Amino acid sequence: MHFWVRASASDFSGTLPQPRSGHTAVPIGKSKVVVFGGLLDKKFLSDVAVYDIENKLWFQSECTGNGSDGQVGPCPRAFHVAVAIDCHMFIFGGRSGSRRLGDFWVLDTDIWQWSELTSFGDLPSPRDFSAASAIGNRKIVMYGGWDGKKWLSDVYVLDTISLEWMELPVTGSLPPPRCGHTATMVEKRLLVFGGRGGGGPIMSDLWALKGLIEEENETPGWTQLKLPGQAPSPRCGHSVTSGGHYLMLFGGHGTGGWLSRYDIYHNDCIILDRLSAQWKRLPIGNESPAARAYHSLIHIGSRYMLFGGFDGKLTYGDIWWLVPEEDPIAKQFIESSPKHLPDNKGMAAGNINIQSAFKESQRENDAIAELQRRLGISVSLSGPGLQIIDESEDKEFIELGSRLIGERVSKNEQDLLSQTIEMLRDQWRKSTPSSIPLKELGPLLRDYQRLITRHHLANSGSDSQSIESLLSGKEAYKFYHLKNVSQLRMDDIPKLLSEYKKILPEKNSSGQKTGLEEHPL
User: In a 3-state reduction of DSSP, which class is residue 311?
Assistant: First the structure.
């Protein structure tokens, strides 16, 4: 179990960096993190913000240097690439205004001096939204990007000692050209995930490139990897950070809708486990930061540090720690917020947590029910026993879906409402019991009851009271009769989720919906 803990200014010395997106943040050894550039309110940045890890100190580095045009350092930019090798941070490309850049700089972080580099060989074209990674402690590999006219699928390798670029001759099948993807070296392979491709679609494919290590004497070639598990949805502008035996993917944005496309921003954590070679959702014990893309996520010891990003409307300057439950920050958070944590060792304590977490929403639902009774109206599908409300009237359900798509949804926006409902159900379909926050159990239970009720009303003509009688004592749908989520025990959660997944309608290979129809009592 991991926890998100938001950092405050009092946690650090010095001045925190200003909000931004499209910046880079690279660790220099184990001593510091260097943040460069980015975009804030249409203004491109060129400042260098440094986090001193040991002293918990942020400071603005006053760099010296000399470029070809007499400037001290790189011009303001965003959506560039930055790679650290030893004490040096190499910068290539990016965008400044509407102009794509192809200049090449290095920052010596021992003396804080910029140098514009004159390289030779197969020089890459100016581009933004590319991705790059270090090969050992000497070379850099860069893949793809956008040059202002077309998406790219080229691979360049830079020798940081000789400053020679080489375009890698790759044979066989190639990934579709793309930008806004990630590229991460894992031992001898470069792993590329996602991005936006030719024609504009956002992708969720994973590719591995071999032939980057000279000593291996391999012919360069791409292989598409189709791994089992809970794979990430299509996205670009996400981050992938290496941590131990797994890669951590966070955030990014994709698109939703059919006739009208709209951006969906993500705040999920998905890991690629290198040992089992499968995707897994990282269990999170509390609420995640706001969904975002074009942020930075850095691995520092056993922690991850999230900074900045953009959600289509806001540019963020917040700093968050993602920490394992044994981390002192997590322990402090757990002690101050016990309702966020189910205690698997004590079921009674877990039940108290559930009751506490949902007490406020239960009072709200009771008030709504009382108002409906006084006015003589009802949006319920059921009788006086179990209250089954429509999705559009389920405030918590719609709020969860709104956060998922990154915008507030009104019950009057039928198309968007339908898409929101499907996305939330699809997320629960992919979830594990340990990954579902307690606050989502109430909406999930109500949706479970809603789907069962709707099925029986449509297929058997039974009224809701008859349905309750019909299901009473049945092993299947054993949670249908619960009046609220506080009646759940901790060991009920895996069973509830399992039953919920069985009743969710989903399309089979012929395009027909299946679900409850194939799950008779």
Answer: coil
Amino acid found at 320: W
Q: What is the pTM of this model?
A: 0.66
Residues in Cβ contact with 375 at an 8 Å cutoff, skipping those fewer than 6 apart: none
Tokens of 168: 């890698």
- pLDDT at position 215 is 83
Closest CA to 451 of 473, 431, 425, 490: 425
The low-confidence residues of the chain, meaning pLDDT below 50, are: 338-384, 464, 473, 507-521
Q: Are 207 and 191 in contact (CB under 8 A)?
A: yes
Question: Are the C-beta atoms of residues 518 and 465 closer than 8 Å to each other?
Answer: no
pLDDT in tens, 443-484: 999 999 888 888 776 655 555 455 555 555 455 677 888 887
Which pLDDT belongs to residue 257? Answer: 62
DSSP 435-499: GS-GGGHHHHHHHHHHHHHHHHHHHT---HHHHHHHHTT-STTTTTT-SSGGG--GGGHHHHHHH
Please state whether 406 falls in left (phi above 0), alpha (psi between -120 and 50) or beta. Answer: left
| d(C-alpha 22, C-alpha 364), whole Å | 41
Q: From CA 468, how far away is CA 75, in angstroms rounded?
A: 68
